[in-house]
Amino acid sequence: VMSAVNAALSPHRSLAALLIPRLAVGPHEAPIFGWRIASYLFDMAAAREAISEAIGVRHSDMARRVCAAAEHFVKSAVYQASSNREVVGGTANVGGVTVRVPLQCFAINAG
Fold it and tell me: Which domain does 31 fall in, by range?
């Protein structure tokens, strides 16, 4: 599912990455403005196609639910998040190795 989300967000991330260095704002504001400008050009139909291709399994209740959850996360990432860092999250130190934490929608609460 994470590969489906990443495939759906890839064009948005690419456009935001192109915009950010060209914006005449401060270094902390540029990712926010770049992400927001790119959201106006986001193609949800193409994102749905990328999600369904990445999920693979189609004609079942489980596949529809997984696709719907991935679509919901992509919409939230594009339209509500302020930057890619907010979508992806930070890093964590696990046994002396720095690793990226899972996307917040897929994080499992151990408690």
Answer: 2-106
